[in-house]
Amino acid sequence: MAVKKxxxxxxxxKAKARARALQAETATELRAENSPExxxxxxxxxxxxxAEEHEAPAPAESRSREAExxxxxxxxxxxxxxxxxxxxDDDGDEDDEEAGMSFWDHLEVLRWAxxxxxxxxxxxxxxxxxxxxxxxxxxxxxxxSSDFFVYRWLTQLSHGLISFDPNFNVEIINxxxxxxxxxxxxxxxxxxAIVTFPYIIYELWKFIRPALFENxxxxxxxxxxxxxxxxxxxxAVGYMLVFPFTFRFLTEYNLSPTITNQINLSNYIGNFxxxxxxxxxxxxxxxxxxxxxxxxxITKSFLREYKRHAVVVLLAMAAVITxxxxxxxxxxxxxxxxxxxxxxxxxxxxx
Length: 351
Prior knowledge:
Structural class: mainly alpha
Helix content: over 70%
Radius of gyration: 39 Å
Largest sheet: 2 strands, parallel
Number of helices: 16
Order of helices and strands: HHHHHHHHEHHHEHHHHH
Number of domains: 2
Strand content: under 5%
C-alpha cells in the first residue's frame, strides 16, 4: 500500500508540474505579443529576459519547480510497467533482460539437452540390451578363454616370444538370484554410455558454446574432437591390453594347489567395466594439458619441474583405479599413465 501511495503522489506531482509549465508557456507567449519590442521589430534577448523577470516572476518560479519533479520519462511506459507487475523501475531493467537469455531460459535449454541425451542413451541401451546375449560370451567374457583374439594376435605378432597356455579357461560363477538380469542391465548401460560418448560431448559443446569468446571456441573445437578420439583409444587399450593381462595374471597366480579359483560374475563385470571406462577417461590427459596450456595455466617447464611430484600422484591414481591392490595390476595401469604424462609435456605449448 505504501508503494502504491508513493507512486500516486509522484504521478500527481508530475501532472501539476506539466500544468504549471503549460500555463507559464502560454503567459510568456501573450506577453511577447503585447510587448513594444514585438511592435518595433524586437530588441535583443537580454532586454526581453529582463522584462519578463520584472513583469512576471511566476513563470521563473514555475520553471524552477518544473526542473525538480520532471524527468525525461514516458508516463505511459511507466504506467504499463506498473500495471504489468509493479516490480521494475524506470531504469531500463526490462530492456536489459530482453537483451539476453534469463536464468530460466538457460535452464530450459539445459533441460532439453539432457532430455535429448537421455533419449539417445535409452535407444543405445535398448540396442545393446537386445544384442548382449549374442555377444556376451565372445566380447565380454572373451578374456576368460584362450580363444580370445587378443591372445592369438599377441602370439602371432611376437613369433612365439609371448605364449599363452592353450588350456587357459576360467570358470565364472553366479551366487545371486538376480545376478544374470542385473549384469545384463549393467553391461548394456556401460556399453551404451561408451558408444554415445561423442553425442554427449556434442550436447555439452552446444550448451557452452554461446558463452565462449571466439578464441576460446577456436581452442575448444579441436579439443572436443580430439577428446572423443582419445576416449575411444583409451577404451580400446583398456579392453585389449590392461584388462586381459591383469585378469590373466591374477587368475593364473596360485598360492597353493589346493585352492580352486572361482570368480564371481558381478566381480568380473565390475573389474571389466571399471578398467575400460577409466582408461578411456585417463587418455584425455594430454588433451587436457594442451587445453590448459592454451589458456596459459600450465607450461612445459612447469610439468618438467614437478615431474617427480607427478609420479607420486600418478601412482596414487593407479592405486585408486585398479580394483585389486596387487603390484602387477598397479604397474599395468601406472605405465600408461606415465606415458600419457610424457605425451602431455610434448603437446603443451612453449612459454
